Amino acid sequence: MAVNRRQVVVGTGAAGLGFTLSGAVSSVFAGTASAATPKKFTGYGELVPDPKGLVDLPPGFRYTVLSRAGVDSLTGGGAVPGAPDGTYAFPLGPGRSVLVRNHELSPGGTDLVPQRPGITYDPAAPGGTTTVTVAGDRLLSAVPSLAGTIRNCAGGNTPWRTWLSCEETEDTPATDPALTKRHGYVFEVDPFGRLRDREAVPLTALGRFAHEAVAVDPQSGCLYLTEDASKPYGLIYRFLPRRPLGGPGSLRAGGKLQALQVPGVPDLSAISELHTTVQLSWVDVPDPDAATVSTRKQFAAGQVTQVPKGEGIFWSGRSAYVVSSYARTADGAARDHAGQVWKLDPKKGTLELVLLIEPGGRFDGPDNITVSPNGGIVLCEDGDGEQYLIAPSAEGVPYPLARNAAGESEWAGATFSADGRWLYANIQSDGLTVAITGPWWRG
């Protein structure tokens, strides 16, 4: 499919995105995944200004604020924590979902995650997760489910219905004497209460680095992880568990951590032609726990491939979709871009560039990513200026799905209910979690 990367899209005023998702419905929620002729997605129209000044949406759509950090209360006491980030909605019977929501809090922050017995890792750390039960746009309960962690940015769901919450840090007591434990780990959170621990358990075998997100292959049980780091840039990792698909707690049995290598490509930002497909290889990480040297620094030049601003990753169908938020030559990248999405196909052992955002357009800086029940991608923007939820079409056209009308805080944690009726998302710095619904079929 030929795509003009600088195309101006009539009706959106947006710089063109090149995008393809083979075999997927191109709408966010039009038709059904099995429809013989899925409806072509052409957006939902320009956004309507919100009289309340919070969230602009297309005509016919509406939102409800589920919670406000520091204002609303958790079930059992304490305020809703701040900086909501990566989130996933697990089905919980007809019309209900249970959300596990990260809080990307750093030491010295406010609106901290309350620390309770059985869920706390390091009493000196402010972050963690909350578990939120909803019926559509009605909040039923909200409780802390992980505490004592740092910068819980994104994460990922597992096939056995748990949430993997990722610390985006490499802090230790040596770098911050207030801390009591080393940080930079992944933690498993079970919204259904099957894990019964005295304290939060770090999954050390998954590596200690500035974790961003994780996706699990439901066929093989392999995990794919992103790293948001610089000097040098972070890597994409693969984790081969000793007990693949073993259920809650099985990742504690350990496994092998490997880093991605694309032969001849030291930096993924160097690739700029859409649909470029490269072969993958994997290199063992010498010391996953990074006792003395960060994992990304344990390799010789050219031995692994760096990814500028490695961000969201989400499993859909038979592939993982991986986001590079932006790349700047001024920061050492091979080429400037304002966002890439890569399709990682484990069976073929390939990585394909399926979305590219060139600098200078309406949208930039994609971060978290999700895929609707019918295959449509939604990106959370964390760029400059106005911040959008973006729904790209299969033809390479980006459409605005929502805008933060209150300010320039990033969107985060977009996730659909299992029936596709509700899209839950966070506005991070404003501390808001919202539920969005509307005529998804109209697109």
UniProtKB/TrEMBL annotation:
This is Tat pathway signal sequence domain protein. It holds the Pfam family PhoX. InterPro entries: PhoX (IPR008557), TAT_signal (IPR006311). PROSITE patterns: TAT (PS51318). Signal peptide: none annotated.
